[in-house]
Amino acid sequence: MKSLRSFAPxxxxxxxxxxxxxxxxxxxxxxxxxxxxxxVNEPSSLDPQGQWNPDSYYxxxxxxxxxxxxxxxxxxxxxxxxxWKRLSDTEMEFTLRxxxxxxxxxxxxxxxxxxxxxxxxxxxxGSPQLGQFNKIVKAEATGPNTVVLTTDGPYPVxxxxxxxxxxxxxxxxxxxxxxxxxxxxxxSGPYKFASWDRGVQVTLTRNDDYWGTKxxxxxxxxxxxxxxxxxxxxxxxxxxxxxxxxxxxxxxxxEGSTTARPLIVQTERVGYLALNxxxxxxxxxxxxxxxxxxxxxxGIAEGILAGGERVVGEIAxxxxxxxxxxxxxxxxDPEDAKALIAEVGDAAATPMELATSPVFDQxxxxxxxxxxxxxxxxVDIRMTDMATWLKDQQVDDAAAPMxxxxxxxxxxxxxxxxxxxxxxxxSGWSRWSSPEVDAALEEGRSVLDExxxxxxxxxxxxxxxxxxxxxxxxxxxxxxxxxxKLEWQPTANESMFLNRxxxxx
Length: 505
Prior knowledge:
CATH superfamily of the largest domain: Dipeptide-binding Protein, Domain 3
Number of strands: 19
Distance between the termini: 43 Å
Oligomer: single chain
Domain Solute-binding protein family: 75-427
Signal peptide: 1-31
Subcellular location: Periplasm
Helix content: 25-40%
CATH topology of the largest domain: Dipeptide-binding Protein, domain 3
Family: Belongs to the bacterial solute-binding protein 5 family.
GO molecular function, one term: peptide transmembrane transporter activity
């Protein structure tokens, strides 16, 4: 398996050093007046009901408060809602804090919560997160500090999904419109939006009037640095204080350093290869199975990534409710893959594009391409920026890529948040239709009994194993790099809470 490391592209050391020096003046604030964070891409949206991707979430999560949140141990705890209770199988009442103000000084009210829910669940608004909230059919302000949410049936995933519901100010959005709000968002969170230098960085300033724990850093800069070698060099040179998405080789370079260290966490994120089963030859299950058997998943997880990743056989991770023991991954069997491809015949010679973006580990993408080439398939990599990649994914089946490498996290730690959007036929992310799977997914999100839910997800896992509309690869371990003085605990749901960070002088 060690030979798989040959898929790694050469380090861009000279370019990385040059760019890190170019950034150094901005990143070396002596008393940490400025915390500098290097992301892979700039956010595709600062409207929290727009795109759902890590580079956006890392930033806007700090501008807004969510209805509820998770602590560092993963327990759901109060945020805007100080308490909640179930009124019936379909109704839950939330009691809100009465001391929260938006950054413009306006009080956060139950009407803002209702507006937020109505907006994200409105199909006309077109939120990519709609499938995670569309079980909510009514939001009603029932008192000066209470809101009742009604679902279209029992919905056991309501609280885990509401962890991601950022409350927006109705008066601002109604006044300026969604485009202007995206460019200059107003929230109630621990940090305020300051500026967005497109393609370069987003700057936030501390909200000194925040109701909760205040941030340690007066200013925070999120920079777009697509090349991982450059991010690492920035960290080592002191030009960045926190960087995302390093690989195990880069983490090893930080071992023994007195100025920086790797920060590693097992996440709920699952790496997978999505297949557009609506297009030939991928409409043939033999072709899909051949691709699954052609990929050496252990070689990817242990030989290339080697950061604590775990091979999985289902579209879920052990961090999710809905993980089922005993669903084995597809075996690595290139000879059987070749035999299946031969059965498919001439259609198997159809060229296929593999969609990717710099946010993903290109060693993995290149390895998958090589493995598929080795069994006789014609696969070309199509690299786009993250914003374009997201748009290309959320189109009709005919326009969608044939193959897509991705990693999915719902930040909810429930299988509904990953399996429903990727597998249900109603989802804009799904390239497959199975009435049996649709019914099981709907049952999984509609019954309160945990054993019944697990039975439903077991059926989905088994059908997916048989029909191969998507190929699970591994549970992702995320590697950050941090300044040795930065005190921060990464979490399984990959939320970057700035007000949970501190600096040891």
